[in-house]
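Standup notes
- DV: blocked on the single-chain target, sequence here:
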Amino acid sequence: MELRQLKYFVRIVEVGSVSRASQSLHVAQPALSLQISHLEEELGTKLLTRSVRGVTPTDAGVAVYRQAQLILKQIEATQLIASQADIGPAGPVAVGLPWTVTSVMGLSLVREVRDSLKSVRLEITEGPSSMLATLLAQGKLDLAVLFDNTTDGGLIMKKVVAEPLLLVGAKGTLVGRDAMTLTEAAGMPLLLLSRPNGIREEIERIWAAQGLKPQMIAEINAPGLLIDAVQAGLGFSVLPSCALEDRLQKGELDAIALEGGALTRTVYLSTSRLFAPTRAAEHVHALVERLMREAIETGKWNGRWLADA
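- DV (later): unblocked, structure below
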């Protein structure tokens, strides 16, 4: 078995086509197919199923794909460790941030890495927590900020922040109220984030237990548009505090606590159990945690720090 065979196999699975993998790897398609055949012979099992629509991994292929990712990641890490011995933390570090967290500390993270970790190439992926958890488990991210702790055992989930969920409306629509129950909120015209979304699933679980059916106006999977729609008076929404700090400080929105402030979301700083972090990733991990704590302490993020508990 050769490393290039694993590299070729991983690429074929990722793009779902031998011809597309051939183009991206700059390897002739017959040679690529031959290497995969040798790999299947070496392992004594069929790894790919071929059809007119492309190729898909067999059950054995899925298992080999995951192991091959781990092996290739470790090879890359070994190369980085050797280079870091002389020049300090260096190389790529991939960080996953949900859009709400990006708005609070994304710019600060880019600036700090540029200024203090000059040999590190930061790669930030923004997306929903569920997507980031999948990428982290696959070794495509070095660390991620997540909201859902129901992921598989392949992740280390460290609690760092508890933040309140707020009912949000256009300016002037919640005057005179400082809190509301979810029962009351169910009767209001609502604009909610599309599934899968941890906030959406949690509040719907509570409504279902009470036999309530919310008055849904629209589901919007574009966070910026959702907040714009709320600000325009098209409906109300339930959002975490960190998504709103800038607009609340400018007085562009009204926001009140839900369930007397008891309805909260837990934020986790997460890494993989399977992929050992590089020295550069460890430095970025410490930096992310520090920036999150500073955002809480300075009031930029309305939440409670949990990491020292």
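- Follow-up: The mean pLDDT is 87.
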